[in-house]
Amino acid sequence: MNTAEISTEFGDVDFPRLERSLRHPRTLFSILLSIGTGVATVIACVPLFSVLIMLVYRGGKKLSLALFTELPPTAFEEGGGFGNAIVGTIVIVSIAAAIAIPAGILTAVFLAEFGPQSKTASVARFCAKTLTGLPSILAGVFAYAAIVLATGGYSAPAGGVALALLMLPTVILTAEESMRMVPVKMKEAAIGMGCTPTQVAWKIVLPTALPGILTGVMLAVARAAGETAPLLFTALFSNYWIFEDGSSQVMEPTASLAVFIYNFSGMPFENQIEMAWAASLILVLMVLSINIVGQIISSRAKVS
Amino acid sequence: MDDSSVTAIDSYLAVLFLGDLMANATLSDLAESASISSPPSSMEIVKDRAFRGLTRGFAWLTVLVVFLVVFEVATKAMPAISAHGVSFLTSSTWDVQNEQFGVLPEIWGTLYSSLLALLIGGFFGVSIAIFLTQDFLPHQVEVAFKNIVELLAAIPSVVYGLWGIFVVIPMLRPFANWAHENLGWIPFFKTSLSGPGMLPAALVLSIMILPTVSAISRDALSNVPRKLKEAAFGLGATRWEAIIGVIVPTASTGIFGALVLGFGRALGETMALAMLVGNSNQMSISLFSPGNTLAALLANHFPEAGEREEPVLMYAALILLAITLLVNICGAFVLKHASARMRGGAK
Amino acid sequence: MIATPKVENDVLANGNGSLLLDCNIENLYYGNFRAVRDSHIPIHRGSITAFIGPSGCGKSSALRCLNRMNDLVRGFRFEGHVHFRGKDIYHSKVDPVAVRRYIGMVFQQPNPFAMSIYNNVAFGLRLNRYRGNIAEKVEKALRGAALWDEVKDKLKNSGLSLSGGQQQRLCIARAIATEPEVLLMDEPCSALDPIATRRIEDLMQELKENYTIAIVTHNLQQAKRVADRTAFMYVDTSGGGRTGYLVEFRDTDELFDSPQEDATKQYISGEFS
Amino acid sequence: MIATPKVENDVLANGNGSLLLDCNIENLYYGNFRAVRDSHIPIHRGSITAFIGPSGCGKSSALRCLNRMNDLVRGFRFEGHVHFRGKDIYHSKVDPVAVRRYIGMVFQQPNPFAMSIYNNVAFGLRLNRYRGNIAEKVEKALRGAALWDEVKDKLKNSGLSLSGGQQQRLCIARAIATEPEVLLMDEPCSALDPIATRRIEDLMQELKENYTIAIVTHNLQQAKRVADRTAFMYVDTSGGGRTGYLVEFRDTDELFDSPQEDATKQYISGEFS
Amino acid sequence: SSSSGGGSGSSGQNVKLQGSGASFPAPLYGRWFKEYSSATEGVKVDYQAKGSGGGIKDFIGHTVDFAASDAAMNDSEIAQVDDGVVLLPMTAGSIVLAYNLAELKKPLVLSRDAYTKIFLGQISKWNDAAIAATNEGVDLPDLPVTVVRRADSSGTTFVFTNHLSAVSKDFADGPGVGKSVNWPESDKFIAAPKNDGVTATIMQTPGAIGYVEFGFAEQAKLPMATLENAAGKFIEPTLENATAALAGVEMPEDLRAWLPDPTGEGAYPIVSYTWLLCYEKYEDSAKADALKSLVKWCLHQGQESSAEMGYIPLPESVVATVTEKLESIK
Ligand SMILES: Nc1ncnc2c1ncn2[C@@H]1O[C@H](COP(=O)(O)OP(=O)(O)OP(=O)(O)O)[C@@H](O)[C@H]1O
Ligand SMILES: Nc1ncnc2c1ncn2[C@@H]1O[C@H](COP(=O)(O)OP(=O)(O)OP(=O)(O)O)[C@@H](O)[C@H]1O
Ligand SMILES: [Mg+2]
Ligand SMILES: [Mg+2]
Ligand SMILES: O=P([O-])([O-])[O-]
């Protein structure tokens, strides 16, 4: 019968061999690759755990409420905290996010929806990609020239602008990518119902692309929260609270966890170094919690 | 810069920009009273135009920002460009006293460390992305792993720098010494590892770009239509035959984009590199030799640069931007050809 | 063998309604590829017009001209005109968005939005700022699309969680919810079973009293059953290209009973018992 | 109203070939949702078996059990057995990949790969390390799928550049290129025009001589035309769920001419003229 | 003009002084300013260690109220400040050669010849004759010498190269004096940012030697080399020996006193003053007053904590001169 003919053609015996067998090179190959990627994934997690263990081990023992309520200690001083740096980080990163996220998403909407093939888009896309390679220090230098020198002093908004510059390309590019992934047929359906391009973007594309956009935003926020170099030129640091006695000193030098870690990890004093580790741990935990919140938002959005 | 000309999608957009409300009014006159349908109200049209104008404005804002940054850097670099010219690219001294400057070792170091990082980080990043999208693990575990990897992005570079010094270098040292002694004839192991150097820098760098690469390739992979995967499986492909033959090629533009983005990040990384690369004006193929990168040079010298050094540093920054630009141009070129091939428009 | 397009003048004159949508495609290009040529298809109010023909002959392309859906395709070029109530919808001043509010569409492949079933149907109502009872309209539309019983308990579930056939019916419900003046349907039943198909066909007959419907179908029986007039398109492979064109357009009964063109005869006789 | 499954014993005994694929679905779950229950469908060598039934009754689910395609769905659980040549393909030692190598599949929605037309068809051949003349096999498969004439000049173009119908025929070509022993087709013609459909049907008749085919279709005429045996599935909505089950499975002629169950009768009488 | 003063904004009484600059005295300043701020109602002093050069840049750019530097401003820098500059030595410190040779039990003893050669890249192994000569009976390892230097431009480098250039003509003609100099090129010369970067790299690299501020080496428990001074004596880097180095220095009118090679018998050879940079005129007189009282506090109460933290307290005479100079601030 023909079956036999085909079987020989494909180098197989008459009766089907259905059993999983390692002697099949294809099966073996598949299993080896699976193990390979699994191992690669686990290996890639090793550094993370190594860093995290280092953080937990070195920073964990300092954890206490005082870290959140007290000001940074000086040399040979015991105790102390970095409450002002936590508040400062939140303020600076919020300013940066308030600039970069809307700007980035709106740009991405243009790139993905309104004029994906236009010259404007290709120029803007190209610029966004160029920005990804912008050394963080240059973002600081730019914000220094544009804001610090113009306003006459180091300030939280200057830091926010510098960080926004670093967040912007990540937000733009990931948001664009995830908006492009929205199935064309879904957009077609909306257009076919007489949606204006804006309505298509708002009602279909943005909600559908939300999880991807959030991934990008989280990456950007995480990066911004950990950046030191640009803040040294813009927000500097402060050993005092940004909000105190009911007044705010937003236009003053502002503390941030990243600069705190940078300063204190380099001091020759035990207490300071431990503080730096504790601050790193707190910073990572803060980013983690933002991440979790983002994920909850995106999974909620998906259901409704 | 007028882009209303070429494509149909643009004319589709242009109609609203040019079209007057008259046309809509006539159509609405025609509307049957029975119909629920109503033409877009003038409010909707105004909103639509305003919003599209707004997004276009923001797109230009991005361009403007880059232009301003480049302008700022270029004007500040001008004195150095006229003073040092092309020799800046080919010489390798950095002597503030005698005003002799060259960044050849830094250019080499930037490319070398970033390529190494891309090689390592790219491999692991894409592997992770595959592992986390192709149903190897239960969904919850996938999400947990994804979060763990993205957490890597949250760690400040300074911490990476410290981790590199206190954990990575001591771990590498025995291996490096062994490689140098036994395999010293291989150019990569030519020198012994003193401490900071290319390999530790590239290793830490690759971990720093890992989240970017893996998160974006993950998105690209998970967006491959399920039906394609089913088609491959239906033909009797093993999981990996489907992944390699169909899924990865379909997601390849996204993955490539992730790699370019990761490479960009690696080129511009500052603090951790300044702590780990050794900051020495060396140009060596050896993995263990200390070196320097443009970003580390900037980080180390900029905060205290005097009048003489600042323009030179800006010149170096300009070169770094140019390298990034070049990488992106190459990336765009490759992508264009690859996706054209995939769409198969022409022969 | 290749017949020239032939539009019976009396169809224009003797339609059972006034001329609502006058489609005259001289040439339709995708980039350099001419997909359709010389097809004049006038569509009358309150009628159902079917487009039949072999795969790739440009039925979908022609249909998508009628509400300017093709504007979205890069490289698309259109020569000719489409008059909706005497106005050329391809006039440069016309807003394609407004056109599509009046001329709704159901696609070949189901394409529900990534939102709940209820919101999928309510989408168009909200878009058109409908002020009445939305829930009522949603139910009506879902019933009309023969989907109500299956989804009434899970209106909050995502539209994407339905089976293929259910998804397509959801899309039909979504399109008819706003009661557009003209409804374009590109093989709306190709993913449906006969019972659901029959319900959709009945629905078309109902809608036809107030609305005008154009449908692309592969199912000649379906064309016979529902359409008042049928346009038969075919592919002209002379000259190397594969350009679709209108062979014959006339009352359905006439077309099936006494086709005038050889191509039509052959195609129809290939019909299944 | 709801009939219990009824498998005619003589079908088992009197098939025109030996029992090749014995499918017995006791329960089929997606997560907590029971999609199919109690369906025993023995498939004989060299025959064409059709699955009919209303949308959502689990035809696709049942079909996809036959080559373990459902394994890819998260939350999928299967109770029962599927014997291929007497071996249970759900046995823990069986490699689903090997199963699919013998039991090919064509899907409801065309799903060509983002590669050239040629490579789409050659994909399966390369996968099986076919050593013969690949180009020849590709041509043969494309001819078989009634697509050769349309694409012979553009084999290097992407499979995605074809129209929906052409894409589906490409997918059929891809599946038959490796000449599997059993071919599962999930509404393969729902995107095709009658001529192409007829060619595919003819092809099925040809293939049937050497291969065994199971097809899901909405088109009762199609089932009548091509299938030797037909399984009618229906949905049991008692108890709140929507569980599909096998109502009747017998020779096609018998099923259409003298259905034994009320549900079958009703469904078939809804059939179109 | 400086707007970063808190005085400009809030309720009249409150004054905020913002400073930035050298990292070398930063731990001491941090402590002083915090103690002073908490002791003084309505005044807040803040300081950010970004390096001497950075401080001078800020000072010229008027983005701070005062700055600090290990290398006093030079004339061209001073010329760029319209409001005039007052340079005030606040404390002094020593720079040590820290190394990583786990095998050694006793502190390493280095002659002038040996350590200049090390930093000129002319000694490649620890068991080199030049080192062995001053370390008799010590079993020096056959390890390569890895030199760790500052990667950033820094006052510490300035003071150290200033000393080396004073000691060795080869060094003066080669790398020379500067906040960053052209060090020999070799894969055994590694640069690290800031004092702590150098300290950490030395700690992690067997066979490494580098120059860091005394406090960093001490806190990190790194061994420090005993160095030969101008008088030919081998001096350990202790506080007394460093204090002795300051003893013989004349303070010039502008208070820019350099000590490239102190001459005293028991003087540790590498020491330096570190300066506070203030404007001559402040727009806000409250700021000027606050700054003056701050400096006075540091010169008196403050000096008590200097020694405890590893810095050299100012000699009485210098305190008097500085106090006098302080009055020129308006
Ligand atoms: N977006 C497009 N870009 C380029 N060519 C296209 C595009 N859409 C369709 N075509 C081509 O135009 C021709 C007509 O396609 P169309 O989809 O209108 O045919 P159809 O009659 O609807 O076919 P089917 O019955 O398969 O849906 C085909 O040759 C097709 O390849
Ligand atoms: N992957 C899945 N996850 C959850 N439920 C599913 C899945 N696939 C199908 N179902 C559900 O299982 C039931 C049977 O679906 P199936 O696709 O098998 O029906 P069908 O008879 O093929 O319908 P159609 O004719 O519309 O294709 C439906 O209620 C459907 O909603
Ligand atoms: Mg079509
Ligand atoms: Mg199905
Ligand atoms: O104090 P410095 O950082 O300039 O050495």
Give me a quick take on this structure:
Chain A is mostly helical and 304 residues long. Helices cover 73% and strands 1% of the residues of chain A. Chain A has one domain: MetI-like (MetI-like fold, Orthogonal Bundle), CATH 1.10.3720.
Topology, please?
The complex is a heteropentamer, with 1 copy of chain A (304 residues), 1 copy of chain B (347 residues), 2 copies of chain C (273 residues) and 1 copy of chain E (330 residues).
Chain A: H1 2-9, H2 25-60, H3 66-69, H4 83-114, H5 119-132, H6 136-151, H7 156-180, H8 184-192, H9 197-226, H10 229-234, E1 243-244, E2 247-248, H11 257-265, H12 270-303
Antiparallel strand pairs in A: 1-2
Helix pairs in contact in A: 2-12, 4-7, 4-9, 4-11, 5-7, 6-7, 7-9, 8-9, 9-12, 11-12
Chain B: H1 8-18, H2 21-30, H3 42-84, H4 87-90, E1 94-95, E2 100-101, H5 104-133, H6 139-151, H7 157-183, H8 198-222, H9 226-234, H10 239-268, H11 271-276, H12 294-301, H13 309-343
Antiparallel strand pairs in B: 1-2
Helix pairs in contact in B: 3-13, 5-8, 5-10, 6-8, 7-8, 8-10, 9-10, 10-13, 12-13
Chain E: H1 6-9, E1 15-21, H2 26-39, E2 43-49, H3 52-60, E3 66-69, H4 75-79, E4 85-99, E5 109-110, H5 112-119, H6 129-132, E6 146-150, H7 155-167, H8 169-173, E7 189-192, H9 194-204, E8 208-213, H10 214-219, E9 226-228, E10 234-235, H11 239-247, E11 271-279, H12 285-308, H13 316-326
Residues 59-60, 108, 186 of chain C line the site of one magnesium ion (MG).
Spell out the key features of this protein.
heteropentamer, A: 304 residues, mainly alpha, MetI-like fold, two-stranded antiparallel sheet, 73% helix, disordered N terminus, E: 330 residues, alpha/beta, 8-stranded mixed beta sheet, 3-stranded mixed beta sheet, 13 helices, 19% strand, binds adenosine-5'-triphosphate, binds magnesium ion, binds phosphate ion, AAA+_ATPase (chains C, D), ABC_transporter-like_ATP-bd (chains C, D), nucleotide-binding (chains C, D), ATP binding (chains C, D), phosphate transport (chains C, D)
The fraction of residues in strands of chain C falls at 25-35%
Number of domains of chain B: 1
Identify the most extensive interface between protein chains. Answer: A-B, 97 and 105 residues
Largest sheet composition of chain B: 2 strands, antiparallel
What portion of residues of chain B belong to β-strands?
A: under 5%
Shape of chain C: globular
Point out poorly predicted stretches of chain B.
1-34
Please write the CATH class name of chain B: Mainly Alpha
Distance between the termini of chain C: 26 Å
Tell me the series of helices and strands of chain B, N- to C-terminal.
HHHHEEHHHHHHHHH
Overall strand count of chain B: 2
| Bound heterogens, unique | adenosine-5'-triphosphate, magnesium ion, phosphate ion
How large, in whole angstroms, is the Cα Rg of chain B? 26 Å
Instruction: Provide the CATH superfamily of chain B.
Output: MetI-like
GO biological process, one term (chain A): phosphate ion transmembrane transport
Subcellular location (chain A): Cell membrane
Domain ABC transmembrane type-1 (chain A): 86-294
Protein name (chain A): Phosphate transport system permease protein PstA
